[in-house]
Amino acid sequence: MSNNALFYLTSDDMPVVSHADGIYIWDTKGRRYIDGCSGAITCNIGHNHPTVKRAMAEQLDKIAFSYRTQFESQVALDLADRLVDLTDGDLDKVFFVGSGSEAVESAIKLAVQYFVAKEQPERCKFVSLRPSYHGSTMGALGLTGYEPLEAPYRSITIGSVKVPSPDLYRYKETSIEEHITSVLEQTEKAILAAGAETIAAVVLEPVGGASTGGRIVTKRYMEGLRALCDRYGCLLIMDEVLSGMGRTGAWFAYQHFGVVPDILALAKGLGSGYYPIAAMMARKELVDVVGRSGGFMHGHTYAGNPLACATGLAVIDVMESEQLVSNSLKQGSYLRQQLEQLALKYDCIGNVRGIGLLQGVELVRDKTTKEPYPAAFNAFAKITSLAKDRGLLIYPRRCLNGLAGDHVLITPPLTVTVADIDEIITLLDESLAAFGQIVLEREACS
Ligand code: PMP
Fold first, then answer.
1. Which numbered atom of ligand 1 lies nearest the CA of 205?
2. pLDDT averaged over 10-residue windows placed end to end, the chain, 446 residues
3. % of the chain with per-residue pLDDT over 70
4. Record's family (predicted)?
């Protein structure tokens, strides 16, 4: 067999994965890698966890699949209750789906159907941030503020009113406070220009992941956004597909800001990579209004799948018994200190940001002016590949259009210890030294 049929295979020398344990992954050639980014910030509890494997096997012995219009499964009922408890009752209803994009898609549809049911069908536009990432399906892609992904599909996605995302590193105003004021003013202006009575919801990632390399917002910004939604009668949707389920050192990132969304999208950490499961959570009032109008016109074959829900329950059990949410906060602050030490040592690190074990590093050509590397230099890909050569997996992304420079995410499983972080930092240090050498050679040639 030629083994070249996979559509998305990005390189001929892509290693083939063999097995994994804890924070380590091995390829079929016997090379070991530290999973410094939990795959795609997904495998929060680490690989090969016995509790999850046991729970999945037990569920498989009972039933793997049942369809929700014929039966409900006890694990789906229990997982929904557990999630509501984790929000401390801020949100009271749960709809299960299979991926982050589906969770965001479900949020869009619930918001639209809510306003149709309230006889306000004109409220069908969305406001979202640039840059941002909300998924690959047509609705979620329409909200996404990331030019290369949006551009080919602009004519067929729902689109959204794009407003600037707060940027606590590259802001132009004289202080962060003024920057937040300005971003909120621009957001309000955009809402009014689009027609406030036509807006269904404002959507944001409370802590950016792949889209912004761990950009965080401030409490005042969150409160300001909530106040705008309340003033103009639209909903606030938070996309915590990546930041949710303990990643930032709270069960949900919104809890850091004390601002509650009307709808919340969850995915990655919920199944922690063991089985695809995602969820949309919402306030009861929304679900009741939609329910009275004939029910939510939405669904997926795998919604509430027993195997997926058994996995989600076991993941939460592990998170609780191993106290991984508090470990994320504790180890996240150690990781942050170590990354800041590297930033003192290397001129190419312009900014370190994030919260808990969601930490981003922005690479710049000039630390003083914050000038990014030229796009063609592919700094994000170079540093990621240098790290992989040394057995460290990190998550890369380039932001285009001068929105930000290249960045990488350091987001290990929430089980990491100080010794694990030291190992990650040693390998990153070596990779940055090699990167510096490449930069020197390039500057010498130019
Ligand atoms: N929203 C955010 C914030 C994400 O990070 C992602 C995935 N990177 C998605 C939505 C889409 O999730 P999925 O890839 O599971 O469809």
1. 3
2. 79 90 98 97 98 98 94 97 97 98 98 98 97 95 92 93 95 97 98 98 94 92 98 98 98 98 98 98 98 94 96 98 98 98 97 97 94 90 96 86 76 98 98 94 78
3. 98
4. Belongs to the class-III pyridoxal-phosphate-dependent aminotransferase family.
Distance 133 CA to ligand 1 centre (A): 7
Q: Are strands 278-282 and 349-355 parallel, antiparallel or unpaired?
A: unpaired
Please give the distance, rounded to the nearest whole angstrom, from the Cα atom of residue 240 to the centre of ligand 1.
9
Render pLDDT for 354-411 as a digit per residue (tens, 0 to 9).
Answer: 999 999 999 999 999 999 998 889 999 999 999 999 999 999 987 655 455 799 999 9
Torsion of CA 288, 80, 264, 236, to 10 degrees: 30
* CA of 242 relative to ligand 1 center, distance in Å: 7
Ligand 1 pocket by Cβ (under 6 Å):
40, 99-101, 104, 133-136, 205, 209-210, 239, 241-242, 267
362 CA from centroid of ligand 1 (Å) = 21
Give domain 53-321's CATH number out of 3.90.550.10, 3.90.650.10, 3.40.640.10, 3.30.70.2470.
3.40.640.10
Q: Which of 42, 133, 143 for a ligand 1 pocket mutation test, highest count of atoms within 8 Å of Cβ?
A: 133
Q: Does domain 17-48+323-445 have CATH number 3.90.1150.10?
A: yes
pTM, whole model, 2 decimals?
0.97
